[in-house]
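Figure 2 data, in text form.
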Amino acid sequence: MKLTSFRFRKTAHHPAVAPKRRDRRLRAASAAFIAPSFSGTALFFFIPFVVVIYYAMVDNPISNHFVWFDNFRSILSNTAFQRAAKNTALFSAVAVPLAVTLSLTLAILLDSRIPFASQFRTFFLSPMMVPVASVVLIWQVIFHYNGALNQFFSGFGMLPIDWMKSQYNRYVVILLFLWKNLGYNMILFLAALGNIPQEILEVATIEGCGAWRKFFSIKMRYLSSTILFVGILSLINSFKVFREVYLLTGDYPFEGLYLLQHYMNNTFRTLDYQKLSAAAILMAAIMVVIIGILFMVENYYGRDVEG
């Protein structure tokens, strides 16, 4: 009995037991710290996402009869949804590449130590400090039928244009989008340009590489991840331009500015949860596909730099 008791006590205090208990306590403590964040994510993101999928597959929230993909087929054949999707796609296809290209160009100019670089940087960062309502007010003052731009053109004998109700309305909003977003994108590119190893550029200069060769063969390689990030950020912001368009034009703007968010907002007003949910899922799926393609392109183009 004494021998058995001795062996039991020795096993209970074996050195390997303490680390296991410590690991269990660490896992329990980690789970306790993660629980609030996980609960909040589940409550405000995961559960609503599941509810949206459920609403998209029933006929209405009262009878709750599953119709599966009928709601998706319904909105895809809806002319208002088709117009909104087309306008949103055209806006993003023009605004996002311009936002990336122009902000990169501005960053390269500032990185080349041009005169008045500080004032230049402040000018493009100032829109970030202006509230959306104030931005919209500025645009109304400029592009109103009786606004400053028409007054300027009238001095040259040109007839006034109702900019927000003409074929130029999309370009007016693209200009607003660029004015709001170029500054932040430019700062991101400036930070990325500053992280490029100068030794590589100096070696390229010694080897006789010109400015264009160094830019496309070296700098673009190191900028690929930043280009991806700025592209995704600009794509998300292009979908958020609804705020400015809504304040400028209201619920039903001229045809060229009727965006997906207008369709979803007007559908919500009629409490048509099924179409609203189906449209939200389609928009999210399209964004996931686009972002996935951008990730694959960046991974292919910049993998040698990361390695």
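Caption note: The CA atoms of residues 130 and 180 lie 9 Å apart.
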